[in-house]
Design goal:
The complex is a heterodimer of chains A (115) and B (324).
Chain A: H1 9-32, E1 40-41, E2 44-45, H2 46-66, H3 74-108
Antiparallel strand pairs in A: 1-2
Helix pairs in contact in A: 1-2
Chain B: H1 25-54, H2 62-65, H3 80-104, H4 108-138, E1 143-146, E2 151-156, H5 173-181, H6 185-191, H7 197-206, E3 210-217, E4 223-225, H8 228-235, E5 238-242, H9 255-288, H10 290-294, H11 298-323
Antiparallel strand pairs in B: 1-2, 1-5, 2-3, 3-4
Helix pairs in contact in B: 1-9, 1-11, 3-4, 3-11, 4-9, 5-6, 9-11
Classes of the chains: A mainly alpha (115), B alpha+beta (324).
């Protein structure tokens, strides 16, 4: 981080504005649930993909601007972010596939769960 | 730390004035703590995802569960309150980063004020979460549970609106039995406000407009509404009356929905609480001039990182619990 100590106030408010707009868009989409967004894309509703992508955009702004990762040395920044980018999708993919499998077994098995 | 550095390695480690990866010791360690904590939360949310995929065709609809807003009784306000909570937390993140910024410029009173606002934001968020929990635990409509653990909810055939138990059933048949059995009045008084399964069946039989709704989601993502005959048949399987939520059963649907709600929002709330405590400590240190004497407000920056992380986690909890 450069130690010029220039004020970042303008950048902070810009990021706040971006985060607010994204949150408002999410809430509006969540309430309306437009018909076009119900289309299935790679095993999930388009709307859910939109929510997840918008969330990652928010996470990027919070980590890079508010937590000031953008000002850290590249090696330090990636020593934090890279483990998450590798491990979290890996864990999520395994568990979601497993959850889907259990669902199929319960649905197609010979045991009735609804009585 | 200085005492351990006595050899020629001086100047190559933190204690010798050098900073590996150009980060101070404390800052690097809070970042690696955040990394491990982020993995913990990822584990919880991934487990939530597994359970949700397991019950993909019967999971409760968040819009129907979280639809309260303060002072708006009986008004269907899906998600407005959680959205407001999200704003409060993001805004307290903004005041926190403004405090860090003021710290870089060594402006003591500005840092103190921004820390103060951050603490207030955190307290409002905690209060809101308590209110959410209260609504969730108390419940709104009530339901019955079948032998197989399925939740059945009640709907008005005319309007299609949800019906509360009190809209059609009268509590207290158990209480009357209680009088006959032992005549203990205190127990009876309590039991007079509690529904027995028989009360619900009686209410259903005397009100022709009552229909049942199962957990199952149809192809449009709505809960399946039964006909009057199907409802009567289904109601025979009822073994519990459920009002509100606990860790064993809840009126919204799947048991694990409430379990994950309590556990994940509870664990996040505990983080917020910890963050508020840390912020208060730092706030007093700022006022006492500790960092002024130290000529560095880096401590504000470090608790700031933790506070932003708490905000970051909420962004994900908000998405996966309330939106998706």
């Amino acid at each position: 981080m450069a130690h010029a100590h220039a004020s970042n106030v303008k950048r902070i408010w810009t990021v706040f504005f971006i985060l607010s707009v994204i949150t408002i868009v999410e809430v509006v989409l969540g309430i309306i649930r437009p018909e076009w967004s119900m289309a299935m894309v790679i095993g999930m509703k388009l709307l859910n993909w939109i929510f997840i992508i918008l969330t990652l955009v928010k996470a990027y702004y919070i980590a890079w601007a508010f937590m000031h990762l953008e000002g850290e040395k590249g090696s330090f920044r990636w020593s934090i972010v890279l483990p998450l980018i590798i491990l979290v999708p890996y864990l999520a993919a395994l568990l979601l596939t497993e959850g889907h499998y259990i669902h199929e077994v319960m649905k197609q098995g010979f045991v009735s769960w609804d009585f | 730390m200085e005492a351990t550095v006595t050899t020629a390695t001086e100047g190559k480690v933190w204690g010798g004035g050098n900073k590996p990866l150009n980060a101070s010791y404390g800052k690097m360690m809070i970042w690696y703590f955040i990394l491990s904590d982020a993995l913990t939360f990822s584990g919880f949310l991934a487990a939530y995802g597994l359970t949700r995929f397991k019950f993909i065709d019967s999971w409760p609809i968040a819009d129907e569960v979280f639809n309260h807003f303060p002072f708006l009784h009986g008004v269907d306000a899906p998600m407005y309150y959680v959205a407001l909570m999200t704003f409060i937390l993001i805004f307290s993140s903004v005041t926190m980063v403004l405090a860090v910024d003021a710290g870089h410029q060594m402006k003591k009173s500005k840092v103190a004020w921004y820390m103060f606002f951050t603490v207030i934001g955190g307290l409002i968020f905690l209060g809101s979460q308590a209110w959410e929990w209260k609504n969730f635990i108390q419940g709104t409509y009530g339901a019955v549970e079948t032998k197989g653990g399925q939740i059945l909810q009640f709907v008005d055939a005319g309007t299609g609106e949800r019906l509360a138990l009190s809209d059609f059933a009268v509590p207290g048949s158990e209480a009357k039995q209680g009088v006959n059995a032992n005549g203990m009045s205190a127990q009876v008084e309590e039991a007079e406000h509690i529904y027995a399964v028989q009360d619900i069946v009686d209410g259903f039989n005397t009100h022709q407009n009552v229909l049942l709704r199962t957990e199952r989601l149809d192809e449009h993502g709505h809960k399946t509404l039964l006909t009057r005959e199907q409802s009567a048949e289904k109601l025979k399987n009822a073994v519990h009356v459920v009002e509100g939520a606990n860790l064993i059963r809840n009126e919204y649907g799947n048991t694990q929905f409430a379990d994950f709600f309590f556990f994940i929002t509870g664990f996040h709330g505990f983080h917020v609480f910890t963050g508020v405590v840390l912020n208060v400590i730092i706030f007093f240190n700022v006022i006492l001039g500790t960092y002024e004497k130290r000529k560095s407000y880096e401590m504000v920056e470090k608790v700031g990182l933790y506070w932003h992380f708490v905000d970051l986690v909420w962004v994900f909890v908000f998405t996966f619990f309330y939106l998706v």
